[in-house]
């Protein structure tokens, strides 16, 4: 029986003309439709029926049926498909209309999951939601359908930002052209007559044509006769056209072309290929982030992978390891010298390594000594490779931790913020120095970066989140116990989030006590396990080194918090004895090292609060996914992650003793905070642009925003590079002088004093000796100089001495009396190389008692012994000095032309006693204005100052190597 169009509408119960229009364009399923085949309708099962009432559809797609009925039967709009399904089932008896598929025209089935157009017709979307698609090309996975529903509703209510963001998410779900939805079931090869059933079996209801589980499987359908089909040629040979009724009206003699669908084997291979693409593309799918993009752009920003970011960072960090200077004497005498003692058997010992005080852990030193030990085996004649091996290891670790944190920012905060972070960190003057610094604070920075790469992940009570908790706890404990105990403060926001914030959990008030208990148990177990894993080897190594059981991190805390009670009755003065600074010291220092980046970092939390309160696009920008009422808002989660920088600066500013290295643990977090600020500032610029132009499309096409952000980053990078060049040009003299001493001064002396010992070199006597040594086939062995017992003396500039790794092995290093009246390091009791592999030896009289087993494992007995007298009051010990006139062969001194030179002018500049062998220009910071000593600019009037001159307001001194002539 052929029905007219009006008769079909009347039979289906669609009486009003708006619903008749929708009826013409939407096809569905039904039990009682006159337009359907009665045999097929009777054979249908209940679970194959999609039930929607007309009022719900008119509400969803903006078709007004009757204003009075609409107001009376208004239902709350929801984006949750499960809630829609439950509501439909609850109204089962009140369902007004049931539509079937057969009574709908065929021309409205052109909806493809891989082609989610921005301007989507509502009726076409309704067809996609209500129909059971027959083939892969025009069916949607559950997630794509839900996202498209949200997008259409956002367009309907005028939320353009949210619609654009959902559009970006839909585009991100595709890989190249031949994509498949990420969670679609095995549908390749389904024929045109296939029907789709739920995997769970009978009794499962669907909403919008989609099962609750989102899993489908093909079932063969009963074949039904169709009119002759006509295929049209397309550019895609496998594109399938819907059968139409036009072929019956074609005139005689018209030739048609039909394209077959690919075989099942081809479809299966295509599905396997697409699956492999999805597995390989680890970061193709954009995850839900705390800061989302609200402007729809043609292509997403380029975000390097972890390996690419690591390779970029490691190039810069290795350059820093090779060329940066040592800026802190604590790095030299508290870490480089103990490492030198472990590897080479001699070195300086500070009071912190005295067994009486024991506030430095040998576990930390032992971790870093392995590369130097390997280098000593590979290059037995030179200690310098050991120095650079340790620095290269530090640069490698720093590069990886920065790249790991960068990738976490891209995955969980914002891809653009990750790019900003990478650029800011790459050229940072602070990171140039800290990345290769051999300090506990720099080590803590690397561990904190790894910890935050897990902290940035979403917090929840799911089992997968236990990995986040464990690794975050582990790296926080490593930073605190093996590095610097005070950085444990940076873990407090993480602990607060774990114990108090729901995160991705939807916690009802009634279930909150049980939820809190489970969270506490998880944090406690992970924290305790991490503490045991780190503390056991640390205590064991310190037991071997000091010969007694102790927990060194506890001693560090006691010394800094209770200095007068530290040391078992031995009075202590505390860290204030080594200098105090005003409370704003760290603000100025961080501004010097980070410039614009530090200002942006301080603005991060205010910008988050301002955005969450006043921005019109805050619902999209501060969290891509819609968070439920009982979940933690994205703004709160973001603030918790930004808080450690503020807490650390506030805490350390209250301490009287301040040093630049105390800020190193938060260097990477400062760049992270600044990147978040720049992302939010860019979002505000986009809001203003859209408000002025009323065109989100133009906002997505303009280059204004990228130009502004690039200008900020490039300006900051240029200032940072100028600061790095200033450090290299103004303060690199100690390393340059030690290079000359090892490779020029001493080889010449050895060859001239013992020519017979170096006949194997085959030097060209027609060339200058330095040039001949440079072109020699073998390295000059300085072993014969051990007969002379040469001594290098350090005067007032003792704190500029880099390390004995840069001093050849036959040379002894000592101090001479100068203006400094504080305590200087003593010498570890030397361990002869022949004893390195011996068994237990007799314990010195002033050493700490120890177990014979520990003596056999630990070969450096000087760690259990005081090399001299020590005190904690920073009082001078006379046993540190030697007589410069009788015991010094070489000396290093600094001459200041613009101020009194002190004792050096009377001793080292005496031409009858001392001969200058090499002088290197070094900036006199006290005589140079702040701006000129802070930056280096390639300007002649800025840089061409000579020693003793004041050209461009720069004032230089000379760091000289002197040789005793008498």
Automatic annotation (TrEMBL):
| UniProt KW Transcription keyword | no
Picking any one GO biological process from the record gives:
protein N-linked glycosylation
- Key words, A-Z: Endoplasmic reticulum, Glycosyltransferase, Membrane, Transferase, Transmembrane, Transmembrane helix
A Gene Ontology molecular-function term? Answer: alpha-1,2-mannosyltransferase activity
Membrane-spanning intervals of the chain: 429-456, 468-496, 516-536, 543-562, 590-614, 635-654, 666-685
Q: What is its main location?
A: endoplasmic reticulum
Localization per record: Endoplasmic reticulum membrane
Reading the lineage from the top rank, the first entry is: Eukaryota
Q: Where in this protein does the record put region Disordered?
A: 186-246, 832-852
A cellular component annotation (GO) from this entry: endoplasmic reticulum membrane
Q: Quote the biased-composition stretches of kind Polar residues, using this chain's numbering.
A: 236-246, 842-851
List each copy of the Stc1 domain by range.
Answer: 80-145
Q: What is its EC number?
A: 2.4.1.-
- Provide the membrane topology annotation: Multi-pass membrane protein
Q: Which pathway does the database say it acts in?
A: Protein modification; protein glycosylation
Could you tell me which Pfam families the record lists for this protein? Glyco_transf_22, Stc1
Query: Record's family?
Result: Belongs to the glycosyltransferase 22 family.
**Which protein are we looking at?**
Mannosyltransferase
């Amino acid at each position: 029986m052929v029905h007219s169009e009006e008769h079909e509408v009347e039979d289906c119960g669609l009486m009003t003309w708006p619903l008749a229009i929708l009826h013409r364009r939407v096809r569905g399923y039904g039990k009682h439709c006159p337009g359907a085949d009665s045999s097929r309708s009777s054979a249908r099962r209940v679970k194959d029926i999609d039930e929607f009432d007309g009022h719900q559809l008119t509400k969803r797609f903006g078709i007004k049926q009757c204003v009075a009925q609409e107001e009376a039967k208004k239902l709350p709009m929801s984006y949750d498909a499960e809630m829609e399904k439950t509501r439909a089932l609850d109204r089962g008896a009140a369902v007004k209309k049931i539509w079937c598929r057969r009574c709908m025209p065929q021309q409205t089935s052109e909806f493809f999951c891989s082609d989610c157009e921005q301007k989507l017709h509502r009726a076409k979307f309704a067809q996609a939601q209500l129909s059971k698609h027959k083939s892969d090309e025009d069916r949607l996975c559950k997630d794509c359908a839900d996202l498209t529903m949200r997008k259409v509703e956002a367009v309907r209510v005028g939320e353009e930002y949210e619609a654009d963001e959902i559009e970006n998410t839909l585009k991100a779900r595709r890989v190249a052209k031949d994509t498949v939805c990420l969670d679609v079931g095995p549908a390749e090869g389904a024929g045109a007559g296939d029907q789709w059933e739920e995997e769970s079996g009978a009794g499962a209801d669907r909403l919008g044509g989609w099962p609750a589980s989102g899993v489908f499987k093909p079932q063969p359908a009963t074949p039904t006769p169709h009119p002759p089909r006509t295929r049209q040629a397309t550019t895609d040979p496998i594109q399938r056209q819907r059968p139409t009724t036009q072929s019956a009206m074609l005139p005689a003699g018209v030739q048609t072309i039909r394209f077959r669908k690919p075989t099942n084997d081809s479809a299966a291979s295509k599905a396997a290929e697409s699956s492999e693409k999805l597995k390989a593309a680890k970061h193709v799918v954009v995850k839900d982030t705390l800061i989302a993009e609200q402007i729809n752009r043609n292509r997403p920003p380029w975000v390097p992978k972890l390996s690419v970011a690591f390779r970029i960072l490691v190039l810069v960090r290795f350059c820093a390891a090779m060329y940066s200077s040592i800026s802190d004497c604590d790095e030299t005498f508290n870490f480089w010298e103990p490492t030198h003692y472990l590897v080479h058997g001699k070195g300086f010992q500070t009071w912190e390594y005295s067994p009486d005080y024991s506030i430095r852990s040998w576990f930390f030193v032992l971790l870093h000594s392995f590369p130097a030990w390997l280098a000593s085996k590979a290059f037995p004649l030179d200690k310098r490779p050991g120095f650079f091996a340790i620095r290269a290891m530090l640069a490698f670790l720093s590069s990886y931790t920065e790249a790991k944190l960068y990738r976490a920012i891209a995955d969980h905060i914002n891809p653009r913020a990750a790019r900003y972070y990478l650029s800011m960190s790459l050229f940072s003057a602070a990171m140039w120095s800290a990345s290769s610094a051999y300090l506990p604070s720099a080590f803590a920075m690397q561990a904190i970066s790894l910890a935050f790469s897990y902290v940035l992940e979403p917090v929840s009570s799911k089992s997968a989140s236990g990995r986040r908790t464990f690794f975050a706890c582990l790296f926080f404990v490593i930073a605190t116990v093996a590095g610097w105990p005070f950085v444990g403060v940076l873990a407090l926001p993480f602990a607060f989030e774990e114990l108090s914030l729901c995160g991705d959990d939807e916690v009802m008030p009634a279930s909150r006590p049980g939820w809190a208990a489970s969270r506490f148990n998880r944090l406690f177990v992970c924290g305790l396990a991490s503490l045991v894993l780190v503390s056991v080897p640390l205590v064991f190594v310190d037991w071997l080194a000091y010969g007694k059981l102790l927990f060194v991190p506890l001693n560090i805390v006691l010394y800094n918090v209770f200095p007068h009670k530290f040391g078992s009755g031995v009075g202590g003065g505390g860290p204030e004895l080594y200098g105090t600074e005003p409370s704003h010291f760290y603000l100025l220092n961080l501004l010097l090292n980070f410039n614009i980046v530090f200002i942006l970092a301080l603005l991060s939390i205010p910008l988050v609060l301002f955005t969450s309160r006043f921005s019109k696009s805050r619902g999209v920008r501060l969290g891509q996914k819609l968070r439920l009422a009982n979940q933690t808002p994205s703004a709160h989660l973001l603030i918790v992650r930004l808080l450690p920088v503020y807490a650390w600066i506030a805490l350390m500013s209250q301490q009287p003793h301040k040093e630049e290295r105390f800020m190193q643990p938060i260097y990477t977090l400062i760049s992270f905070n600044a990147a978040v600020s720049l992302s939010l500032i860019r979002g505000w610029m986009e809001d203003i642009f859209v408000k002025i132009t009323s065109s989100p499309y133009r906002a997505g096409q303009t280059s204004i925003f990228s130009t502004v952000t690039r200008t900020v980053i490039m300006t900051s990078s240029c200032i940072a590079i100028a600061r790095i060049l200033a450090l290299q040009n103004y303060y690199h003299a100690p390393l340059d002088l030690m290079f000359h001493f090892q490779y020029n001064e001493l080889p010449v002396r050895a060859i001239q004093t013992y020519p017979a010992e170096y006949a194997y070199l085959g030097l060209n006597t027609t060339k200058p000796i330095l040039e001949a040594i440079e072109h020699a086939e073998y390295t000059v062995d300085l072993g014969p100089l051990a007969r002379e017992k040469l001594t290098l003396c350090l005067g007032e500039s003792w704190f500029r001495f880099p390390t004995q790794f840069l001093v050849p092995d036959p040379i002894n290093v000592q101090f001479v009396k100068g203006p400094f009246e504080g305590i200087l390091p003593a010498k570890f009791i030397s361990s002869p190389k022949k004893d390195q592999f011996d068994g237990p030896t007799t314990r010195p009289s002033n050493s700490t008692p120890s177990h014979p087993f520990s003596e056999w494992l630990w070969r450096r007995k000087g760690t259990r012994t005081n090399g001299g007298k020590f005190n904690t009051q920073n009082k001078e010990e006379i046993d540190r000095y030697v007589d410069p006139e009788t015991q010094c062969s070489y000396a290093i001194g600094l001459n200041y032309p613009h101020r009194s030179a002190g004792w050096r002018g009377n001793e080292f500049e005496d031409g009858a006693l001392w001969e200058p062998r090499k002088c290197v220009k070094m900036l006199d910071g006290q005589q140079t204005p702040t701006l000129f000593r802070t930056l280096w600019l390639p300007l002649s009037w800025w840089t061409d100052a000579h020693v003793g001159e004041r050209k461009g307001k720069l004032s230089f001194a000379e760091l000289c190597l002197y040789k005793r002539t008498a």
